[in-house]
Amino acid sequence: MTFFSSDIVRTELKEIGFLQERISSSILSFQEMSKEEKMNHIKMLEDLLEKQRILYTRLSLSDDSNAIEMKNRLDESMKFLGFSSEMKINDVFKNMIDLIEDAKNHLQDE
């Protein structure tokens, strides 16, 4: 069985796609959202980030050539996004988790 034929991986990829679509379709209206809607939006971001982090970990542990290729493409895309070659994707996940936590705390303080 290949990495991407796994039911677990395919389900996770669908969920990631669904969350990405929901987040991107509502991001422009974030400022007009109620506090509760903003918290739900932030929760979706947390869920998406966690699923992406887990998928990346699975890619890293796999010996499937397609998984290795995808992981390498993700690592390479970091450079195109302006990250230094020393920065690892897990550092980006950590930074994003911190930013989301800051956003939640800021929203709760309003």
Commentary on this structure:
The protein has 110 residues and is mainly α. It has one domain (3-109). The chain is built from four helices and no strands. The termini are far apart. The model has no long low-confidence stretch (mean pLDDT 93).
Quick description:
The chain has 110 residues and is mostly helical.
Main pleated sheet: none
- The value of Rg in angstroms is 16 Å
- In the predicted model, the low-confidence regions spanning at least 5 consecutive residues are none
**Dominant shape:** globular
Strand content: under 5%
Please, how many helices?
4
| Structure summary, number of beta strands | 0
Quickly give the structural class: mainly alpha
Terminal residue distance: 50 Å
Oligomer: single chain
Helix content: over 70%
* Secondary-structure element string: HHHH
